[in-house]
Amino acid sequence: MFILLRGFILSIAIVMLSFPVSAEEVSKGQIKSLDEQVQEIKAETLNLGVQMRLLEEKLLYPSSTQVAVYVSLDNVEKFRLDSIEIQLDGKMVAQHLYTLRELEALQKGGMQRIYVGNISSGEHGLQVLMTGRAKGSSGVRRTEKFKFRKDEGPKILEVRLVDSDDHMITLRD
Amino acid sequence: MARFFVLLASLLFAAPALAAGIANVKGRQYLSDYGDILYYAHQGEWFDAIVLFDAHQERSRGSDGSTTEAFSSQPGHMAGGFELKYRMHQRAERAMKAVIDVTAEDDLRNEALFRLARMNFQNDRPEEALHAVERIRGNLPAAIRSELAFLRANIALTVGRNAEAVAILKDLQSEKGLEGFSSYNLGIALLRAGSEQPGRKYLDRTGRIESDDRAVLAIKDKANLILGEKLLSEGHFKAAKEVLDRVRLSGPFSNRSLLNSGWADASRERFDNALVPWSILAGRKVTESTVQEAMLAVPYAYSRLGVYSTAALKYEAALKAFGGEIARLDASIVSIREGKFLKRLMQEDLHQDAGWIVSLRELPVTPETFYLLDLMASDDFQESLKNYLDLEQLLKKLEVWSGDLASFGDIIRLRQAHYKPLLPVIDREFKRLDAQMRLRSEQRDRIAQQLEAMLTVTRPELMMTADERIMSEQVARLERMMTPRRKKITPRLWHQIRRLRGVLVWNIHAEYDKRFADARKHLRELDHELDVLNRQHRAFARTRQTVTESYEGYDDVIRSLRQRINAAQGNVRALLARQGQVLEIMAVNELTRRRDRLEEFRVKARFALADSYDRAAKTDVQEKGAQ
Question: Judged by CB atoms within 8 Å, which residues 6-25 of B form the interface with A?
Answer without folding.
Answer: 15-16, 19
